[in-house]
Amino acid sequence: xxxxxxxxxxxxxxxxxxxxxxxxxxxxxxxxxEVEGTLxxxxxxxxxxxxxxxxxxxxxxxxxxxxWFIEFWExxxxxxxxxxxxxxxxxxxxxxxxxxEKLSPEGTEFxxxxxxxxxxxxxxxxxxxxxxxxxxxxxxxLCKEMVPIDGSELLKYLRRVEFTGLSGDRFQFDDYGDGPAxxxxxxxxxxxxxxxxxxxxxxxxxxxxxxxxxxxxxxxxDQVMPPESxxxxxxxxxxxxxxxxxEGCCWTCVExxxxxxxxxxxxxxxxxxxxxxxxxxxxxxxxxxxxxxLRPDTGWAIGAMSFSTIxxxxxxAVLGVFLQHNDTPVVRASGRELSYVLLSGILLxxxxxxxxxxxxxxxxxxxxxxxxxxxxxxxxxxxxxKTNRIARIFRGGKKSAGRPGLISPKSQLVxxxxxxxxxxxxxxxxxxxxxxxxxxxxxxxxxxxLVCSSFTDASYMMGFAYPILLILLxxxxxxxxxxxxxxxxxxxxxxxxxxxxxxxxxxxxxxYFSTVSHLPLRITSMSVTISLSATVTLACLFxxxxxxxxxxxxxNVRQAxxxxxxxxxxxxxKSNQSSNNGHLLNGASKTTESVKGLMASSAVHQPSPTAxxxxxxxxxxxxxxxxxxxxxxxxxxxxxxxxxxxxxxTNSGTISVSRIHLTDKIHHSAMNDRSHHQTPFRHxxx
Length: 686
Hints:
Strand content: 15-25%
Main location: membrane
Family: Belongs to the G-protein coupled receptor 3 family.
Number of strands: 23
Strand order of the largest sheet: 1-2-5-6-7
Membrane topology: Multi-pass membrane protein
GO cellular component, one term: plasma membrane
Transmembrane segments: 300-323, 338-358, 370-391, 412-433, 464-481, 493-513, 519-542
């Protein structure tokens, strides 16, 4: 207590005392401000009957058997007893004790532990009594069985004693050899200014604590509220306990870092929340982050679906126009069957966007995995079939006068179906080996995205590999057939479609790989790219045909589709059979440009003059065409006869002929300038 006072910490401590020092004047005397407010437990004791009178009657003269009684007498009466040895207490006392001083109840305070001394003596007395009665059978004095006394036997009797002591309390030992658990709760407080006392405020007996409601507890400074006295404050839910080394009851609170909570099974540890969860506000548990995917009501999805919806409506509009004019020359010349396949593929491309806004599941991811590559394969397989057919026709026409194989509509559908089947097999193998499944990904610690696994890496490019190959092949064929005459200029539109598609996909690839941390943008960019490619194909290939069908129906006839070449060079020689009325066509001619496009093969025409063609390299054959036109350049006022090398355009294709012999005279005396002339004929001899 003196150390507390020296360090000026009197107000910082509130004591809880045990029976070792609580209630003793030796501790509290002179240290009252430091001890004030102390609560202590003392073994409960009551006055021993008759001991007060006995002790107050003692003097040094009648109590010589107690060697410490004279020292007590000197201290109590503050005098020095004659012939007593010097002690630290009696050296300053000048008065001499007479031994006849009297102890009074007012000046004498007895220790509370007297009852326990009395109970201990009586416990042994009763144990000896019980043992003597049992062993000596009522014999007076000690019998030989108790000489000497066996301590272990005496302990048995001692544990079984039961009596009422001189204090009036019942005494017996419990099963553990302890006496009755009776305690008084005492409180050291200031009863008046500068006057302090230990006062009882409650008791503990028979396992129950009883407080004296009439006795007010006063803590330091007359405070009635109990002081807060702790070694360590409890940690809140976001903190872990870090125990002080060597202390099992004191700790410091350590704040758990971001995304951590206190371990529910070990309050000394912080645990990180699993991916996809975040701590709650109290940092007491981890809560799941709401999953995010490309929902239909988000801005990205609305934009992509709006684009696709417009494309679907346009596709159905084109399909309706084509069906309404199904038998017109423009529709027939464009290859009706492949055009409808192409429109189906374009429609699939637009519809794929709606798959991206569905909540990802394993089934949805599998459908996405196959649908993306399949729709492209349908489109570009049809375009490849078209360009390949044109290229084969004109390449074969330079080598032979015969008609190339596999150019009929049925053959074209078989080729296109075979190309799409290859993609289908690739997609099935991919789906079997590495199926796309729904999974949660976390680009940042606070994200919980639900996406298809194929979108998290570059595996979707496997579905695009085959369509990209078809795009490249279509582009090559578009370049090869770019100089076909204007009569068959669909190849130019296909070429423009391919060039634009390549640019779109070259722009998409870096966007796809740079949006790995923004998966909604990656999915949207893929959707828009697919729809944009379909739009380019729809606009470039079908808008010219729709323009003629809707705005210039007069050009949607057979004759209008047989248009002149850009320029043909005719090498001729005058015949020696010339006359003033006309000129006979004679000479060798070589076409400088190939025919572009194909004519439908089922139109009905008026009879036309007949031309017979002969070749020096092949046997002569007779072929009949529904309609064909000789296209060459003639000079007005001249008459030609003889052989001419030309290109013959028919409804089902073109045939390159080395020499042609006209059986009909062509008179152009009425023409005033150089012009292109088209001569219809039906029968051609090869």
